[in-house]
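Entry for the shared binder. Reason: the reviewer on the internal report wants the predicted structure included alongside the sequence.
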Amino acid sequence: MFTGIIETKGSIVSVAKGAKGSRLTINAKGIMDDVKLGDSIAVNGVCLTAAEIKGDTFTADVMEETLRRSNLGSLKPGSEVNLERAMAAGGRFGGHIVSGHIDGTGTITSFVNEGNAIWVTVEAPPSILNLIVEKGSIAIDGISLTVAYIDSKCFKVSIIPHTSSETNLTSKKVGDKVNLENDIIGKYVEKLMGLSGDGMKTGNGSSSLTKSKLFENGFI
């Protein structure tokens, strides 16, 4: 489990592409002091396993399903990535519950400066937008952020200077793909209500959970 509070930025050392899947070697100087083989590290929000460790680098295998769901397939040597080790027991929970299991990608459509903040607009598919609420949480490339605006086509977040300097988000360009992970609580509610990703009934939801029951208990 992760919190979406990025520890450091790293860079891709090499990409070995196979017929199905890839093997990434990542320079992660600054967080390698206690990393062991088999440890989980979120790379742009994607939970990967350290399969090899050498100095300030670790190597991880990325399966085809992960490449389909995320932007890891577009990485190349020199690409900057956000890095976070799995949360330690007893550590501060500064962000929100982030599993490292990406739901899909979105596309950055604009950056707008406002005082000391930068507004970032991300266009995303309905399956992701339907699980976003204003003032709720979203992980963008592994960064825990608060949603400041949402409509039927996009959502917006406002980036403070610390987030801008410690992550790779504002170094991206309009048109770049970003990894998105919805708040896991919303996904469980969707499942219990028998809804599909587009908000429609699946036909196999047998739960007695209803919108009125959620409302009565303060969830809506």
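Summary line for the report: Residues 200-206 have pLDDT under 50 and may be disordered.
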